[in-house]
Every structure is written in C-alpha cells, then in structure tokens.
Amino acid sequence: MFILSRHDGTVKGLPSPYRDRELSWLDFDTRVLELSEDQSIPLLERVRFLSIFSSNLDEFFMVRVASVKAKIQRGISSINSAGLTPFELLGMIQERTQQLVSRQAELFKNELIPELSRYGIEFARIEQLTDDEKNGLKDYYDARIFPVLTPLVVDPSHPFPYISGLSLNIGVNIESSEDHDISFARVKIPTNLPRFIRTSDSTKHRFVLIDDLIVENLSALFPGVKIKEHFFFRVTRNQDLDLDEEESEDLLESMEKELTRRRFGPPVRLEVDKVIARELLEELMGELEIEPQDVIKYDSPLDLMALSQIADLDFPELKFPAFRSEISPEIREAETPESFFAALRKNEILLHHPYQSFTSSVVRFLENAARDPHVLAIKQTLYRTSGDSPIVEALIEAAEAGKQVLAVVEIRARFDEMANVRWARKLEEVGVHVVYGLMGLKTHAKLSLVVRDEGNGLTRYCHVGTGNYNPKTARFYDDLGLLSSDPVLGDDLSRLFNELSGYSTKHEYTRILVAPHSLRNSLLSKIRREIRHHQDGKPAWIRFKLNSLLDEEIIGALYEAAEFGVKIEIVVRGICALKFTSQAQRENIKVRSILGRFLEHSRIYYFKNDSAEEYFIGSADMMHRNLDRRVEALVRIENDKHKLRLKGILDDSFSDQYSTWTLQDDNSWDRKTFDLDGKRLVNFQDHFVDRHNKA
Question: pTM (2 decimals)?
C-alpha cells in the first residue's frame, strides 16, 4: 500500500480516485435545493433555502468558475486530480448548472408560488391588480423609483455601458428614428429598494416585482420613443483577488486598490430570460465578450436570492419553531468579570453554538476582559465579524483603558475584505496593535487570549473555536468553542500570537496542532497510527466532522487505512472529493452530509488510538489551502465529559434515526427521510434544539 501524493491524484490508464472539487460544490448546492423541495420543511424556510441556493451559485461562479475560465485563458490543458481538463470541467459545470436553475425555476413557479398563495402571500402581474392597487403602485413608482433610475442608451455618442457584477438589468430594444440612431438601452434595477413591492391591499400580502413595475413605466423613461421589446439580464464577474504581498509596501493600501480593481473583473456568466431574441442575445454577448456556453437561460425571475425578503415575512406558523439559545450552565450565575473568570479557573467550558449562546459566553468573555481592571492584555484573531461587532468594540474599549491589545485582522477574508479594512483602520486609530498575519498565509484560526493579574501571578484565559467571531452568524451556525485557563494551552497561544505578530523559527506546541507547520503531518501520523493499531489487533477508528474534504494526501491516507480495514466515518457539509473505487473503501468508509436550519460549521477530529482516545476541534478543514496556505489551529480536548459530548455529536451524525445524505457505493448522494417502516426520520438539528430546550 502507498499514500498518494497530494499533487499527483491520477494514475495513467486508471480512473481518478477523486471527485472533482467544482462538481462536488454543485453536489452540495443540489442538497440545498433538495431542502427547498422538502414539503416537511416549513414553507417560508423552503423559500429561504431557495434564496440560499441562488446565493451559493453566485459565489460559485464568481470564484470557482472564474478560476476554471482563467486556466483556459492561460492555455492550461493539463488534467486535475479528478482527471479532467479545465475545458472538459467547464462544459460539465455549464450543463449541470443549467439543469439546476431549470429545476429551481420549476419549483418556484409550479410549487412554491401556489403554496404561498394558500396563505395569502401572492405574486401578481400588473394586469392582475385592481385599479386602486395600480394607482398606489404608480404613486410609489413616481415618488420612490423614477427619481433613482438612470436610462443608458447606446448610440454613436454613448458607448455600451459598464455592467456591474450581479446587478439586475433591463435591456430595451428601441426602434431607431431618422433623428436618432438608437437601438438599445439599459436600465439598472436599484438594489437599495425592495425587490418585491407590496400592493395597497391591506387584506393580502400581494407583491409585485420592482422589475415589472419599471417595465410597466418604461415609456416614462423614454418619452416619444417606440419600444419594440425588453428583456432582463444579469452578469457575474470574476471576484477573485490578485494581491502580490511581496511587492506591497502597505498591505492595507494595496488591498483597498485591489478591491477597486475587482469591481471590473471579466464576466464569467450571463443570465437572461428564455424569451430573449437571438439577435439581441448575440449583440449582448458580443458587447460583454461572453461565449455561448457562458449563457444561462431562465424561465423565472432572475436573481431569486431576493426571495430572502419573502422568507422574512412575519408568518411564524410558516417558519421553524422559535428557538432561544441557552446560557452555558458553568457561567449562568457569573454576573461580574471576577465571577466569570473564576468559573473558567474552575473548569474548562465546551460550548456548542447556537444551542448555547455565543453572546453570553464568547462576547461576554471579551467584554469582561475589556472592563476588568485586572486584565493586562488581550490578543485576538479576526477573520469575519459583524458590521456592528461588539467584539471589536470591546477591543477598542480595552485599548482606550490602557490595556495591551493585539488584533490579527485577516483583510483577505473573501467578500469581507472591505469590512475588515475598515475595522483595521478603526482599531489602529485607538492604539490597538493591528497586524495582518504572516506573509503569504491567511490567518483563519479562531483564537482569543486574555492575560489577567490574579494578585499571586498572571493567568492566561483562552478561547479556541471552530467559527468566526461574529455574533450574528453565530445564531444560525453550528460551531464549537473551548473556554479555558489551562496554563499549557495559554502558553501555546502566547507563542502562536507572538509568531503572528513577530517572528519565530520554532513551531512546537503542546496542546494545539497548527497549520501550515504541524497540522498536516500530525493528522497523517495519527491516521498511520490507526493502521498500526488495527494490524496489531488493537481498537482503531477514525471519525471526522468537517465542512470540506478535498486534500488528496489526507484522502489518500484514509484510502490506505480503509484498505487495511480501519473503520472510517466522515460527516461533511460541503465539498467532498472522496470517491469510492474499491470494495474495501465501500465497506470501511461511511460518508454522510447534514444540512438544516443551522449551517453545520463545526469541525471535530477523532482517533480511537487504542484506548487513549483523542478529540480535536478547531478551524481547519481538509483542503490544500487550510493545511498549506493558512494559519489554522486545532485544540486537543482533554476533559472526559467534553469527549463524551463530542462523541454524542458524532454518534448522532451517523445514527439511522436522523435524516441525512449518504454517499452511495456509486458515489451519488442519497437523502433518506423515512425509515424502513415508512416513518419520517427526525431532523438532526431538531434533536439538539429539543435537548437544549429541555435543559
């Protein structure tokens, strides 16, 4: 047996042992779409999942498809680890995407719209409205919409306008006259107004698309002009950053310039109405320099991400039952900073969000640290946070109080770059030591360190998490965290923060595994150790819960373990490149996926290790970028009660009494919602909601 190199995923003449990353992403999007189709899920939550599906697909094109197209443009024709050339892969993506959006449109039109109407939530065309409703909408248009619209014509003195990424546009085909050689105009639909406009009928929740209302009044935008036809279109642009850190003297300033440049990335997708005339489509493709295979046609409104507005309507009976996070019992009575830190000195606390409140634990941890006069220093990583972040405000308060504060701000966090640039500027203004991590590496680790003078010496308090320091997303992200005053962990975090802000050639830690220095090799070593245990007749077992499994070297090691007979269980939310190619793999590897009302974001790594079981939680997924190009941290769990809690999560993830997706022997995903007796299976996350509601 051998472990495949992570850079050599294929063997000539043999099928690839890996599933392609991009196709696996579309597998994940398909699972999200299946939630929209699930009639057992509350109706407005199905609408929300349809919005999430659209949002996911936008990001997929902005980043992943853009990367594939860039390879084609650079003339790269070599096969990837899944055995596909970029050109072959792009064709498969385009075919699969068209199938998915057609399925989405059919679901919205033929199932969700009729279902919503049963509860008085209606989508109407202008011609279906009463005269009073039409008059009310005309008043709204004149007062709120018309003043912000900007019609842009294309003629000899007006070139084809720049079309911003993800903007929804109306293309207008105009009949030229003797005085004006005009054939085309573009109207951008405002993004700062509601997409769905409620009519004046107070007895119903009847909505009209702003798109239709603008079309109804096009003659007011082009007075005296004959409009032949109109259509809707939307462009997706490459949103990947190209930041050369080695050539940058000021990383923050360079990032600001790169974000400005990114707005003008090349188009990678054109979405249009199915009704668009062929001549108009060809003209539009020519102006945007879009190839025919990059066009996706819709039989529904474009940009269904706007359905989040409908999902937010106040219909409690059409949503998941209300859920309130509990306060972790260890700190429930800790009302002062002194009592809070005393609770941490007594025991480590394992947190499971959102079932246990992030605000009442992690945010309080940092707010107490900022206000406690005995706290001397706070060190914090920030990858993504909320726009009105209480964590950033706590760091500012601490700095203004004279404490030493270090913030490792990752300004390259995709799609949060501008927000992080603003936070970095604000923190610097109050005297926080702001650094941007190590050259060439994103800092993705979720770490807090508080240094407190206890009178008889200094105590270091730590938080290590699996999710971002974002109180808003923590309400619907499933994540884990550890609050601790363990001196060993405190020493580990002190040395890691010193490396992030300073310089170090030593990367040795006791209780944490850190990428890119030790995490990959440590995990590979532990997988090989399970093989040896199994060969020696000792208990051996590997269980992972993670967001993405892509790294070929890790997967190759799991394949090898399976060939030797080691039992492996993996629950993965999103991308999974693992692919069954042998009977031993099918017998010894079990892969599941869980999606629901909360986004499964926690990572757990378990190794049986004979009788000395090991559990780790942390920020890292099994992807090249996490293991080789990011600063990541996993912390070893040492409390036996905490190990039992993590075991319970893993046990439940693979229990047949809960509804999950399972990777089949033919490498397709199958969702099981009923047991053998025809009884509906329990939703995995509802199980935890019920457990904490009863606590």
Answer: 0.92
Taking the CA of residue 258 as centre, how many other CA atoms within 13 Å lie in the half-sphere pointing to its CB?
22
In which residue ranges of the chain is CATH 3.30.870.10 found?
A: 329-508, 514-694
- pLDDT band of residue 179 (cuts 50, 70, 90) is low
* 27: number of Cβ within 10 Å: 21
**Assigned token pair, 171:** 């293309």
Residues 6+ positions from 468 with CB-CB distance below 8 Å: 383, 384, 385, 446, 474, 477
Residue 501: how many CB atoms within 10 A of its CB? 16
C-beta separation of 10 from 557 below 8 A: no
The pLDDT value given to residue 204: 84
CATH of domain 329-508: 3.30.870.10
Which percentage of the chain shows pLDDT scores above 70? 92
The C-alpha atoms of residue 625 and residue 517 are separated, in whole angstroms, by 13
- Contact 66/265 with Cβ under 8 angstroms? yes
| CATH class of this structure's domain 514-694 | alpha beta
Q: For 347-470, where are the alpha helices, taking DSSP H only? A: 364-371, 390-400, 417-429
DSSP state of 64: I
Let me know: does 136 contact 200? Beta carbons within 8 Å.
yes
**pLDDT at residue 628 is higher than 50:** yes
CA distance 351 to 148: 48
* CA-CA-CA-CA torsion sign (56, 57, 61, 65): positive
Measured in degrees and rounded to the nearest 5, phi and psi for residue 460 equal -105, 125
Q: Is the dihedral of CA 244, 245, 249, 251 positive or negative?
A: positive
pLDDT confidence of residue 413: 54
Q: How far apart are CA 512 and CA 526, in angstroms?
A: 14
| Among the listed residues 327, 335, 390, the one whose alpha carbon sits nearest the alpha carbon of residue 353 | 327
Enzyme catalytic residues: 444
* Band (4; pLDDT cuts 50, 70, 90): very low
**CATH T-level assignment (fold) for domain 38-318:** polyphosphate kinase like (3.30.1840)
For residues 528-552, b (16+ Cβ closer than 10 Å) or e, as one string? ebbbebbeeeeebbbbbbbbbbbbb
Residue ranges, comma separated, of all CATH 3.30.1840.10 domains in the chain are: 38-318
Mean pLDDT taken over the chain: 90
Q: Which long-range contacts (CB under 8 A, 24 or more apart) does 125-133 make?
A: 125/208, 125/212, 126/208, 126/212, 126/213, 126/216, 129/199, 129/206, 129/208, 130/201, 132/200, 132/201, 133/199, 133/200, 133/201, 133/206
Tokens of 193: 């107004």
Residue scoring higher pLDDT (389 or 480): 480
Q: Do β-strands 477-484 and 512-515 pair in parallel, antiparallel, or remain unpaired?
A: unpaired
